[in-house]
Amino acid sequence: MPSTIGTYYRAAVEEARKEIESTPDERVIGLPPEEWVDYLVTKWGMVEVELDSLRETAMSEIEREY
What we know:
By secondary structure, this protein is an all-alpha fold. The chain has three helices and no strands. The chain has helices at 5-22, 25-29, 33-44. The longest helix has 18 residues, at 5-22.
């Protein structure tokens, strides 16, 4: 089944949540919040999607349930 951006982000948010919950308090307490956020965004984020104005075909996200 092909992945969508929405599918990727739902999985990334879940994996980031697991990482946050499993990180020892001793590590997080001494870490500046901005550094922690930068780390998580770098690890789990995705490069910005840019519109290709040269293409004529438009894409849309479709989710199906069976």
